[in-house]
Each structure stands twice: as structure tokens, then as C-alpha cells.
Amino acid sequence: MRFSAESRFKMQPRFVTKIYPLGDSRPARLPSAELLRFLLFAVFLTALSNFTNGEENHHVNRTPPLATAEKPEVTTELVDLVEAFVVAGEKDDPAARGKYLGPKVFYYGHPRTREQAVKAIASLYRRWPRRKFALTEAIDLFEIPNHRGVYRVTAVYEYKFDNLDEHLSGKSKLTCVVEHDQQGSRIIGVDEKLVNGSTDYQTE
Predict the structure, then answer these.
(1) What is the pTM of this model?
(2) Is the Cα torsion angle 101, 103, 106, 110 positive or negative in sign?
(3) For 161-183, what is each residue's pLDDT tens digit?
(4) Which domains are assigned to the chain?
(5) Of the candidates 69, 91, 106, 196, which lies 20 to 30 Å from 4 by C-alpha distance?
(6) Residue 60 has pLDDT above 90, yes or no
(7) Which of 41, 10, 9, 23 shows the shortest CA–CA distance to 137?
(8) Residue 158, SS3?
(9) What are the tens digits of pLDDT across the range 36-49?
């Protein structure tokens, strides 16, 4: 896994909702309009990741929960999407996670196609062929101001990785930026950071 550097970025989210889990060669040339849109996403995805890292100890200052009352079906869909993305990491097929990603995704600090992200997922699976994930806290949902239909969803989960006599476990805070429209929902940004002091590596 790769984790982004920390810095502080202040921004007021439009709303917040807590949903508790039930139980985890040359690139093709893009048209200019699409390229501009993609670069815009890259900029604010980076800012959102930095914002997440800087606000961890300020939960009491978040805005009141409005999403459940105003857009309950969207809230449920986005939370279910991220939960399914986490749990799909237990499957052997990297495409099980890849299907939740958009065609273009800002993946751990780098603009990637879905296919490139799936290759990165496959690399993790080769390193750790046995994986278990379990959500441990509420999933937080924020609507991104001035970006209609774009949301940031964060989830803390426990992971256990095994490879022969190697064992790695701990907790990580996952941040996904999700785009929602009439065609459905897709993850267009992924980043995460380890929870301090939670990592445990053992070898037999």
C-alpha cells in the first residue's frame, strides 16, 4: 500500500452522515474538455486527501447530519459502494475491486486508468495472497462543495495479510472520492493512511 504525505487543508463540507457497518507505451490522447475535467478532479482529490489527514481530531466541529434526511437513497448507495470495495479485497480476482472504479481514477496520488489501478491491486495480491478486511468504525460521508454529485467517503478498517510465514495486520483509514449521477456511482479517487501504532508485522 502507498500512503500520501500529510498536510493541512481547511474546507467546510456541505453535509456529513455517519452510517455504521453491518459487520469490510504512450497514453491515449484525451479530448481537451475531458482532460481539463480530469485535471480538475486530480487537484481537488489531492486537496481532499490532505484535508482528511488534517482533520482527524476535529470530529466535534463537523456540520450536522443532513444527508440521511435529504438524500437517503444516495447515502445508502455510496456507503454500500465503499463497503463493497473494501470487502472485495478478500477475493483473488483484482477486477472484483476494479469494477467499482471509474474509467479514470486518482489512485494513491497518481492519475490512473481503471486498468492501471487493477494492475496495482494485482501487485498487492501477489505480495499478500491471503487477505481479510473488516470495517471497524462508522463510515463518514461528505458532499464536496461546488462539485455536484461528488462525495468523499471515509472508512476505517482492520486488515490481516498472510504470505507463507509472514503476517501483517493493523488498521487503515481509507478515503474514496465517489462520483454519483444518473448512470450510477463510481470511485474516482482512492487514498489511505495507516492508523498510528496499529501495524503489527510478524515472521515465523
Answers:
(1) 0.69
(2) positive
(3) 999 999 999 999 999 999 999 99
(4) 16-55+72-203 (3.10.450.50)
(5) 91
(6) no
(7) 23
(8) strand
(9) 454 445 444 444 44
